């Protein structure tokens, strides 16, 4: 199949609707029937199916589906940090908005992500920190001891984290109230 035929085939997975919406009809697409409101958006989405990553970092060679993602990645090489925390007196800066947002939550009183293990009182401002905590070796050992103190040192317990009685989703509490309260 040449490049033209491949392009036609890929485009055949796009179904335009009369209202200007575009649907991905790729087999087993996880988007289901959620539409795109612009053709360029669905073309970028189709790259997730074809693994096409046309935007390459000239420093490390990492490839991206979107030029914007390459631009954000390039800051990891240049050290540029244009996103500054908006809280008065805090001058921390970040290379992307996501990291700045995670940091900004550290100024809140609320730490809505709590470990579900009975003896653990740790709470976090973001789910990724809780996931790191749950995946830690010491946490796994404490969890196993809490479940069955007689088996904490058996070698079979440490074969794989999936052997423990809890999955990460069992341990992570999702926040109920995300209202913002600032530290005083």
From TrEMBL:
Gene3D superfamilies: Classic Zinc Finger (3.30.160.60). Residues 27-54, 55-82, 83-112, 113-139 form the C2H2-type domain. One of its GO terms (molecular function) is RNA polymerase II cis-regulatory region sequence-specific DNA binding. InterPro entries: GLI-like, Znf-C2H2_ZIC1-5/GLI1-3-like, Znf_C2H2_sf, Znf_C2H2_type. Pfam families: zf-C2H2, zf-C2H2_15. Belongs to the GLI C2H2-type zinc-finger protein family. This is Zinc finger protein. It comes from Sipha flava (yellow sugarcane aphid).
